[in-house]
Amino acid sequence: MLVLALLVLGYVLWPLLRPATAVVDPSGEIARDVLRARRDELLASLAHLPDDAPERQAALAEFAAQAQEELAPAAAPVPQPAAPAHSTLRARIGLAVVGLLMVAAPAAMYLIAGMPEVASPVFMESQRAPASVDELVSRLQARLKEQPDDAEGWSLLGRSELARGNLGPALEALERANTLRPKDAATLADLADGIAQRDGRRLDGRPIELIRQALAIDPKHGKALALAGAWEVTQGNAPAAIALWGQLLEQLPADSEQARQIAGFVEDLKAGRRPGAGATTAPPGAAAGPAPATSASGAEPNPAASAAAIHGRVEVSPQLKDRLNPNAVLFIVARTLDEQGRPSGAPLAVIRTEAARLPLDFVLDDAQAMSPASRLSAQPRDARIAVIARVSASGEAALRSGDLLGSSESVNPGARKVGVLIDATAP
User: Fold this and answer.
1) pTM above the 0.85 mark?
2) Per mean pLDDT, which of 159-173, 323-337, 342-356 is the most reliable?
3) Which of 79, 97, 262, 330 has the fewest CB neighbours in a 10 Å radius?
4) Is CATH 1.25.40.10 the right assignment for the domain spanning 136-270?
5) What does 325-387 look like in DSSP terms, one character per residue?
């Protein structure tokens, strides 16, 4: 673009900068043409006289004298004084300065107020929407290395890592964002959600404190209202949960799926049912979403759910401890067994946490149900169930080669002191 601008500028200024060339004065030729025409007219008027007639000779002599007099100035033009050398130099310098200003002024304005970086392929690539959460996380990590005080960037990184199930990096990023910007309701709610996911979907303790801080800053924050309502359910305080979720419903689009689900939870509470008991789909949102069935003390408002809860401990065999990645994801899943003793059907309960917490005591109950239709409390008393533990380096729910595995013996709903030893590797 700069080269093109210089070419255009040169095209405009060159005629003014190049040396002046002599211009041929055509006045002498024109005078001769006029004289030829007058001579032809004179000869025509004298055609009736003989060539040696005195009148003819006198007229031609007079015409010749006049022609010589008229042609003399054209043949010897008066020389024009040449422009002084210093005047020509001054004119060229002036034109050069004008040309420079014509380039420099717009260029300076463009650099100050424009966006010259948009011509860079690197810039265009950075403005492209990320194709996946992984790409978004990579971009954020690279940006935060250069801008470590970007609170919004840390908050977005934390939410992205939560979406990928990487609780360790998610909590680290959200803690950093909370330090840089301690009065942001969204960051506080996300941090509470992440801690609750790490602690087996328990909102007691620091999570509820963070939720209350978020609501003090923004009483209408949607996620904070949803989590606060869920905590009130675990405390058996249905009226408070109904009030909180009612405020949330006022902000949600009436025709949205989340609004329909929250409205269903409110109707369940009003009818004396556990939230989600009358729904056909699982509660929306994060792992610490609005349908927990247990309280901080372990007592459950639903007696059937309490009786069906499975308690146990997951450990790693000494042979595999050196292969355990603390940053990996630990899944603890309750599955029904078929007649051949193989896991079948949808998971009845799932805990997702960090492998660094091993060995870990766990409680699997309806709070970790993937769907109201598949819950521990809905299983027959003699149902055969296995508790499966898996350490996933990729963080994905699907089994991958190299994952560390372990399974309990067949147990029934409500079993206590169930032991799970992680002692195998997926092929």
Assistant:
1) no
2) 323-337
3) 79
4) yes
5) -TTSEEEEEEEEE-TTS-EEEEEEEEEEEEGGG-SEEEEE-GGG-SBTTB-GGGS-TT--EEE
